[in-house]
Amino acid sequence: MGKRVAVVGVGMTKQRSSRPDVTGQELINEAVRAALEDAGISRRDIDAVVIGNMDHFEGINYVDTWSVDGSGALMKPIMKLTTGGTTGTTVAMAAYYHVASGLFDRVLAIGWEKNSESDTTGAIITAFDPFWDRPIFAGAVAGLALEATQYMHLTGATEEDAAYVAARERRHALNNPYAHLHINLTIEDIMNSPYLSWPVKMGDMCPRTDGACAVIFASEDVVDEFPSQPAWILAVADRHLWAYTSDPYVNQALENGWWFPALEWAAGEVYDKVGIRDPLKEIDVAELYLPYSFAGLRYMESLGFCERGGGPALVRSGATDMGGECPVNPSGGVMSSNAIGATGLLRVAECALQIQGRAGDRQVPEVKIALATGFGGCFWSDVLLMGREMPEKPRG
Amino acid sequence: MEPVAVVGVGMTAMRRERREDGYADLVYEAVRLALEDAGMTIDQVDNVVTVSNDFFDGRTISSMAVQDACGSYDKNVSTVEGDGTFGAFYGLMRILSGSFGTTLVCAHHKGSESVMPLITNAMFEPVYERFLGAEAVTSSALQARAYMDKFGVTEEECALVSVKNHGNAFRNPLAQLPLELTVEEVMSSPYVAEPLKVLDCCPISDGASAVILASAEVAEKITSKPVWVKGVAHCCDAYHLGDRDLSDARALRDAARRAYSMAGISDPRREIDLVELYDAFSYMELMWLEGLGFCGPGEGGKLTASGATAPEGEIPVNPSGGCLSGHPVLVAGLNRIIECVLQISGEAGERQVDGVRTAVAHGINGPCGQSHCVWVLGGEK
Amino acid sequence: MEDWRKGQEIVVMEGRIKVPYRWAAGEVGTRYLQALRDERKFLGTRCPGCGIVYHPPRRHCPDCGRECAEWVELGDRGTLVSYTVVHRHHPQLSPLPLPFGYGIVKLEGADTGFLHLLYEFGEGELEAGLPVEAVFAEEREGSVLDVRYFRPLREVG
């Protein structure tokens, strides 16, 4: 039977628009050293390393073997995973399964990106099918804009509703010294920012960032060795549906009435495993991969925080603000920092800090259960549920 | 480690160019074959690990393009970027966690669609090394030289590996390059980067493969002859070539030691019946045999010259023809596992080796075998 | 029905990943490349724990993790650890006309080897342990190619 797994150490670099003072390996090492120090262990105590980023953002092939000077994987097992935007949560899940398998007790997970070193959009364009999509339609912003217009059409949501989400994320980021953007944008500022691809405006989008995050996962057998309170992984699940860009827009609304099936199915799976029935009430804090503002409306509905079309009212009610029923993204989220390969892992790291009560000015009081998500690929979703209490039994 | 079995394997033919099929088509073919082999439907697979590399596919998030083909719809799925042996290792851990009963692992590669040296050049550090133009062949030549100098291994001994493996490929209908060669022919083939000659090097290939892993509970329901995973481990050496002793595969020795320990193997030469290892270049077979503990350091050439590694020898190595006879990168490690499974279950056709109970499969990542993954597979639980 | 595949010529789309890269050398790498460019000097860093002098320099020791704060000036001569003579290479990757060599060179004062190019050597001249020297470019820009290549050490005079 598998082992129960907890996060026992967290390290992150300050997220910045550009870090020319360090190479990629050195940037990774900054986060790794912070995580090892946080966990009170040394490189030699680590049994295995998992690492992730997106190849074409830095143009480095075999990042696992390249990373060794920074990741500390010298003469250790190291494995690379990559799934686009979900990479960081994918790496967290891989570290989880490494430990849960019983083969490794202390596993270091690393997500990183130096987006300053390439043309981010130039690289993302190559995610699209070379025959059907790439010559015609590509890039992250336009794809999200299609989702936004569809959502507005189906629910009557407005651009101003979305601006509420963006303003919340910017406001929360002011409490996070590690966040990239510290700009207190008002709803008016966001509404007045230039359109990138209607209805998505500059103020609705995430930045591109240089940053790294390292998280140490440990087995129930060794968790007592570590100084900080363990943040237990309660359940993980993902769905990476579809292969073509046009698939989500057709299927999301039409197929059996599913709204955002990848997120709904993955969230449903972890809720079932843990026994969550009323997510808004039972989950104390959520760190969600919201790549742009409209996601902060629709995903609330897909996560079961409110009924379909209820996202705008929920966000306007303040329930997702600090002090609300379930604060969303106390860290400022992806709209405030987006070193893509690190982004999903930062969600997990932030949840761990919240559970441990170590989140500083962004701390939500009394966090017992926290939710982390990753978004990427073709509207793919990764979901992790974390908690303060050790689960009664291992449950993946 | 709780028992986990390989219950189905599937691989496409390896060919220089499969222009009629996109890589998702190749994955579909391999997955369908693995499901048929296991007697399963895709609905009985409860999670998937795909293996791909964005550089080789010329596509960011290249695994996106195979999600339909691998049947991951509404399943938990993830993507390992690296050799198939590493992807399969992740698939194994997902079962050991208790979360899943069956993992489908698939890998694809279309070498025909890109320019291999430009891609392997991207393994090298951008500030200090990449502009020098080193790539897989030239860096491996440095390793071959270091290894041969240290132990006095000759080019003729390396050539024996090419002769043997290309010859073995005649009995593998899925191999790309069956060749009837003599040592003289290998020796007289032109140098690419000394001491490596054209016939010391693997070809460029298209292909895909899939394996299905299952927990003991599931495996024993599905098949009457599961092949069991006895031990697996991997390990990574230093990155900069100049930081390493290129003549010493210490990361392989470490991975082998741990995999053997899991499998309860103390004398590999006696206890292992067959080896499928990652012979991207002929010298690698000698070095990896030593690293895997089948002979002492520098003795791989003599072991090969003795005939011990021939199909009818004491410890057959790469009876499938190896990577020298077909090298879809990433897929190649899965193919090593697949050959071991076929040999253990007595389904290796014309190339069947008698009495294979325990076999070792091996894969590598990074330049000059920087990272090694070792699998021990066996017929008994 | 006639097989529609018969006589078909498969369409192939030509493409290229068009992503420009700008790799930062970082503070440590920048100091190294500046010394190469401005002073024709090779610098390494020493690990205070292991005592190893790393070349190229490391900010932190890959093994013990300590900061390698001490800079060490290395010689521009060294010995060949391994080498290859390249006869076939992709034209986009060849920095020198064929045949040229790659070598791992251990510079005087360094404990690790350095991958670089070899040129101006005779047939059969290369061997492990051979003393070699750096040949610097006249116009230097702050890249590893400010060293054009290494060649067998010529006796002075």
Question: Summed up, what is this model?
Answer:
The complex is a heterotrimer of chains A (396), B (381) and C (157). By secondary structure, chain A is of the alpha/beta class.
The end-to-end span of chain B amounts to 11 Å
* Overall number of strands of chain A: 11
CATH classification, class level of the largest domain in chain B? Alpha Beta
- Give the helix proportion of chain A (percent range): 25-40%
Can you tell me the CATH topology of the largest domain in chain A? Peroxisomal Thiolase, Chain A, domain 1
The class by helix and strand makeup of chain A works out as alpha/beta
* CATH fold assignment of the largest domain in chain B: Peroxisomal Thiolase, Chain A, domain 1
**What is the second-level CATH architecture of the largest domain in chain B?**
3-Layer(aba) Sandwich
What's the mean pLDDT score of chain B? 97
Q: Are there runs of chain B of 5+ residues with pLDDT below 50, and where?
A: none
Q: What's the overall geometry of chain A?
A: globular
Distance between the termini of chain A: 11 Å
Radius of gyration of chain B: 19 Å
Number of helical regions of chain A: 15
Please, what is the CATH homologous superfamily of the largest domain in chain B?
A: Thiolase/Chalcone synthase
Keywords:
heterotrimer, A: 396 residues, alpha/beta, Peroxisomal Thiolase, Chain A, domain 1, 2 domains, two-stranded antiparallel ribbon, 36% helix, B: 381 residues, 9-stranded mixed beta sheet, 11 strands, 19% strand
